Amino acid sequence: MHVTIVTVSVKLEKVEAFKEACRLNHQNSIREVGNIRFDILQSTEDPAKFVFYEAYKTQQDAAAHKETSHYLAWRDTVADWMVEPRKGVAYQGLYPVVNS
Question: What is the pTM for the complete model shown?
Answer without folding.
Answer: 0.92
